[in-house]
Amino acid sequence: xxKRLPALALFAVLAACSSRPDDALIRTQLVEALTRDAGxxxxxxxxxxxxxxxxxxxxxxxxxxxxxxFQKSLSGVTAGVRDAHNPLAAxxxxxxxxxxxxxxxxxxxxRQQEKLTFHKTERGWQLxxxx
Length: 131
Prior knowledge:
Elements: H1 5-16, H2 23-35, E1 42-56, E2 59-70, H3 74-81, H4 87-101, E3 109-121, E4 124-127
Antiparallel strand pairs: 1-2, 2-3, 3-4
Protein name: Lipoprotein
């Protein structure tokens, strides 16, 4: 076991100095960013990095595809607006959801494509805010 320790330490150092984020990190950070404020509206499935390149030594760009699987319908979200504390703001939110995703139904899948930017920081690769 002690003979393997230097090899494991070297592997950890090399992983920390990686020239690009690995696919699992891309998937994890994307799903967290998408679902953070979604309120259970959808889940994210089938995340695939389709391409990527090192824009500079501290910047990596990744093209990804994924499915949004809606847990609620737009009409269900709209019906819930009546119970909101601020119906005007909630109503505007449903209009924006409809403009972005269309008239979605519970269980519907919507395939998305996106370009992500990651910056290498002291805490490793971090997904930059998306538009």
